[in-house]
Write a structure and sequence with these properties.
Strand content: 15-25%
Keywords: Repressor, Stress response, Transcription, Transcription regulation
Shape: elongated
Number of domains: 3
Protein name: Heat-inducible transcription repressor HrcA
Family: Belongs to the HrcA family.
Number of helices: 13
InterPro entries: GAF-like_dom_sf (IPR029016), HrcA (IPR002571), HrcA_C (IPR021153), WH-like_DNA-bd_sf (IPR036388), WH_DNA-bd_sf (IPR036390), WHTH_transcript_rep_HrcA_IDD (IPR023120)
CATH architecture of the largest domain: 2-Layer Sandwich
Largest sheet: 5 strands, antiparallel
Structural class: alpha+beta
Helix content: 40-55%
Oligomer: single chain
Low-confidence stretches: 229-239
Function: Negative regulator of class I heat shock genes (grpE-dnaK-dnaJ and groELS operons). Prevents heat-shock induction of these operons.
CATH superfamily of the largest domain: GAF domain
Radius of gyration: 25 Å
Length: 353
């Protein structure tokens, strides 16, 4: 990785100010910033020709780029990284934004996933980006499981945990399910579930199905097997990724097809374990710009993400915002940080995690 602090220290005061003004202007408007614009905003009075020379030097260093024939410049991915690491001024969370985020926590919602979905919706609205919320795996023992048929290709599973939490999850059942086969599957699981977490139940289910295969008809067995696979996918450490506000990315400078690819990947839950591992490499908010994160590099987007922790300071999930690389990082970073801390406190208070 390029040493951005070294690059920054190599700049004199004039070059540093020109660079900072170009980046701030680009993040504010999305347009290339030209020398004539900078002559009106720099702290020292210098000619447009002098500024052009400085910009050419910054371009040679790989920090700025000329998007087309115009005299204006935009920051490169390296330039954005250097700005974020060394020059960005992080503001406070605005009162109106804080109140909207706080309001999601004031709802007495027994279903944690529903509450986190609400958090994602508010985070998307406040930041005008797409929000991500990686929900924690619920490890409390299960008290009751019930399957409810909603349509031929749609069903609901209601999970009641011993700690009082309730989770309702939609899923696509195997073909040919009937209300009676769903009841039978629920009865079978409830007989096994008492005192077990989902992880323990999933480990046990294969043995029990093999031992009691004659007690289940084929359809009910398929439902049990596919249902548990759905709840906790093999090889995945975490339950669910909530994505809200994707429409905020459509119409940005990011390519539409790449945006679709990004969300197709997210909805198939590829690399979700990696998504959380990225946040575990350091405390607090992390920023991934463009191709720095392979999970999101297809979209040419940036990701601002922060883990949240339970009462034992163990990372149990993450919240984040995806947007174009022209994000207002100074505003988004404190919002993501504040939301992650709030979610962590909320879940710790519920005994979740």
């Amino acid at each position: 990785m390029t040493d951005t602090p070294k690059l920054l220290s190599d700049l004199n005061d004039r070059s540093r100010e020109v660079f900072r003004r170009v980046v701030e202007g680009y993040l504010d408007t999305g347009d290339p910033v030209g020398s004539r614009t900078l002559t009106r905003t720099l702290s020292e009075k210098v000619s447009a020709a002098t500024i052009r020379n400085v910009m050419q030097d910054l371009e040679y260093m790989g920090l700025l780029d000329s998007p087309h024939i115009s005299a204006g410049r935009v920051p490169t991915q390296l330039g954005l990284r250097m700005f974020v690491d060394g020059l960005m001024e992080v503001g406070e969370v605005a009162t109106a934004d804080r109140e909207k985020i706080d309001a999601t926590m004031g709802v007495n919602e027994p279903d944690v996933d529903t509450l986190l979905d609400r958090v994602g919706a508010v985070l998307s609205g406040v930041t005008r980006g797409a929000s991500l919320v990686l929900t924690p795996k619920h490890e409390a023992p299960i008290r009751h499981i019930e399957f409810v048929s909603l349509a031929q290709d749609r069903a609901l599973v209601v999970l009641v945990f011993a700690d009082g939490q309730v989770e309702n999850r939609l899923f696509t059942p195997p073909l040919g399910q009937t209300p009676s086969s769903m009841r039978e599957a629920g009865n079978f699981l409830n007989a096994l579930a008492e005192g077990r977490t989902l992880s323990e139940l999933r480990a046990q289910i294969g043995h029990e199905i093999a031992a009691r295969r004659q007690e289940l008809d084929t359809l009910a067995r398929d439902l049990v097997e596919s249902g548990l696979a759905l709840w906790q996918d093999a090889g995945e450490r975490h339950e669910r990724l909530i994505v809200r506000g994707r429409s905020n990315l459509i119409g940005s400078e990011a390519d539409l097809d790449r945006i679709r690819t990004l969300f197709d990947d997210l909805e198939r839950k590829r690399d979700i374990a990696e998504f959380l591992e990225l946040t575990e490499q350091g405390d607090g908010v992390r920023i991934f710009i463009g191709s720095e994160n392979k999970l999101f590099s297809l979209s040419g987007s940036s990701l601002v993400v922060s883990p949240y922790m339970n009462a034992d300071r163990k990372i149990i999930g993450a919240v984040g915002v995806i947007g174009p690389t022209r994000l207002n990082y100074g505003r988004i970073v404190p919002i993501v940080d504040y939301t992650a801390q709030l979610v962590g406190r909320m879940l710790s208070g519920r005994g979740k995690g």
